[in-house]
Amino acid sequence: MVTSDVQEKRRRLLVRVGRHIPCNAPEAVRVFLDAASKMLDNIMKAPEEPKYRELRAANAAVSAKLLQPHGGKEFLHLLGFEKIFKHGEAVYFMTEVDLEYLTQAKQWLQQQAAAAMAMAPAEVPGAQACAECVIQVRLTSGQTLEGGFYAHETVRAVYDFVRSSVVNAEEALLLRAPGHHSFTADKLDMTLQDAGLAPRAVLQVVKSGPEEGGAAEAMEEARRRARQQEREAHEQLRMIKETKMKEQVARDAEKARILSEFKHDREKTAHQGGLMVADTADQGFEETKAVH
User: Fold this and answer.
1) pLDDT tens digit sequence for 226-278
2) H-state helical runs in 21-163
């Protein structure tokens, strides 16, 4: 039974990973998708095998393909990996395996990777990021977030992303650009292009005060949208699961139909064969009578 706390953690991670992945270059996205898919396939084929559920951070391939890409560590946490220390070495370990959930997560990652690569500008070969707009956000804790966006997305989307990443999602915060230009409630619907945040920008999170006029309303609206986005991400996983179940039911029904038709054809053939044998026997009996 998945607790509400776990569900909340997953919803927040879905939003974060979805924004982190486009910050990678197209080739890095492909490498990450390939490595993550192979890792998941190994776990799902042999869930009882611990070696597939343990990733050594010091391993060069694990580090380069799974940990270094933007969103890599967060995706591992989304899958259920926890960072522990084994004999003094950092290890990512999955204690429990939920095959159904891992299947959904793999399909979701494939969709996110495809969406990220579709963002990459074809006219800019060797682009460092798939996203049209990459925004770095410095939190009050000193941590720096990085998310990928389309240039036509709004400032509100950046607030939603920040809300999915901070510890206290209810805290009233404000995004501020260099030069003390704050993005208050009246600027939430500005596109990133119009706000001067494309193609790259660095924002600072500050605690809003009464002088910020409308910041509280902006934060409340951002919180509502963040919760809505998290619900939509959860619904996306549910729809993937439902679609998979429907496809399985359809395959089972088709298999049953084919088997039924095959059985019917065999019974029909057997019945016709029986009639032919009976007719032959009757004919032989009549011929015997005629001889006598």
Assistant:
1) 667 767 776 777 777 777 777 777 787 788 788 877 777 777 776 666 655 55
2) 26-45, 60-62, 72-79, 99-119, 155-163
Q: Which of 207, 227, 247 is the last residue of a domain?
A: 227
**In terms of domains, do 93 and 189 share one?**
no
Of how many residues is the chain composed? 292
Residue the block writes with tokens 């979805």: 18
CATH number of the domain bearing residue 178: 3.10.20.90
The answer to the question of residue 167 being in a domain is yes
Tell me, what's the pLDDT at 54?
Answer: 98
Instruction: Report yes or no on 275 lying in a domain.
Output: no
pTM (2 d.p.): 0.71
* Shared domain check, 153 and 186: yes
For residue 13, what are the domain limits?
Answer: 4-119
Tally the C-alpha atoms within 13 A of residue 33's C-alpha that lie toward its C-beta. 20
Number of domains in the chain: 2
How far apart CA 95 and CA 98 sit, in angstroms, is 10
Residue 17 lies in a domain: yes
Q: What letter represents residue 31's amino acid?
A: V
Residues with Cβ within 8 Å of residue 288, at least 6 apart in sequence: none
Question: Do 218 and 150 share a structural domain?
Answer: yes
Element (H, E) at 135: strand 133-138
* % of the chain exceeding 90 in pLDDT: 58
Cβ proximity of 40 and 132 under 8 Å: no
Clarify whether residues 106 and 161 are in a common domain.
no
Nearest to 170 by CA among 179, 181, 162: 162
Tell me, yes or no, whether 157 lies in a domain.
Answer: yes
User: How many whole angstroms separate alpha carbon 132 and alpha carbon 266?
Assistant: 62
pLDDT band at 285 (very low <50, low <70, confident <90, very high): very low
Q: Are 82 and 92 in contact (CB under 8 A)?
A: yes
In 3D space, the residue among 124, 92, 103 whose CA is nearest the CA of residue 25 turns out to be 124
